[in-house]
Amino acid sequence: MKNILFIFLFIFLSFSEVAAQVVDPALLSIKQRMDSIAFFSTNLKLEVDISFINMPIKTARMSYKKGEAIKFSSNDFVLIPKRGLDFSLNGIFEYSFITVDRGVEKRGGQLLKVINIIPTDKRADFSIATLLLDTKNRRVMESEINTKKDGTYILLMHYADQYTALPDRVEVNFEIEKLKIPINFMGKDTDIDRKQLRAAGAKTGKIFLTMSNYQVLFIK
C-alpha cells in the first residue's frame, strides 16, 4: 500500500537502466540529475478528493537513501488505493521502451517538452505514457499513464522554486471505475457513502501529496 508514494519518487530517484534504447536526451538529463541525490527526508501530508469518501488528512515522515527502500514513520498513515497507483513510473522503466518527441506545450506560461514513452516489451502494464519535461530545470512537470487494466492516471508536479529537484506538491488524478479501492483499509476515521460508491456512472478521484521540511544530500 505504500506504493502510492513512489508515484513521483521513481521519476526523480530511480530510473532503471535504459542503455541501448532510443531515449530522449532530455529524459536522460533528468535521470542524471536525480541519480545525484544520495538521501532525503521530508514531512508528508496526504489528502483525498473523492466525492463518496470523507477521509481526514494523513501525515507521515518519509525518508530515502540511495540504494535502499523508502521508509515511513507515522501513527495513522493509511494509503489508497490498494495497489498504491501501481502504474508508477517504476513500472514504466522496468521494461524496454522507446521515446517519441511530440514537440512542446505551454503550461502556465512555461514551454514544456512533450515526449511519449512506448513500451517495446509486452510485459509492460501500460500502453503509452506522456511526460511533460522542464528541460531548463531538468525535471518532470506532468505525466499521463495509460495502463492496460487500471485506466488512466495523470500526475501534476509542483515545485517550490526553479532550483529544487524534488516537488513540494503532487496531484494525482485517476479513474475510480478502474481502481479497486480497499475501503476496509482506510481507517476508522473515514466515512464512505456506499450508495454513491455503488451508483452507476463515471467517477474520478484525486489524491494530493504535500511535502515540507526537506533535508536533501547530494553525491559530491
Description of the structure:
The protein is mainly β and 220 residues long. It has a single domain, classed as Clam (outer membrane lipoprotein receptor (LolB), chain A), CATH 2.50.20. The protein is built from 4 helices and 12 strands; from the N terminus they run ααββββαβββββββαβ.
Helix content: 10-25%
* CATH topology annotation: outer membrane lipoprotein receptor (LolB), chain A
Q: What is the overall pLDDT average?
A: 78
Number of domains: 1
Strand order of the largest sheet: 4-3-1-12-10-9-8-7-6-5
Contiguous helical run count:
4
Q: Strand content of the residues, in percent?
A: 35-45%
Indicate the CATH architecture: Clam
- Report the end-to-end length measured between terminal Cα atoms: 34 Å
Spatial shape: globular
As a whole number of angstroms, the C-alpha radius of gyration is 17 Å
**Low-confidence blocks of residues:** 16-20, 80-88
Count of β-strands: 12
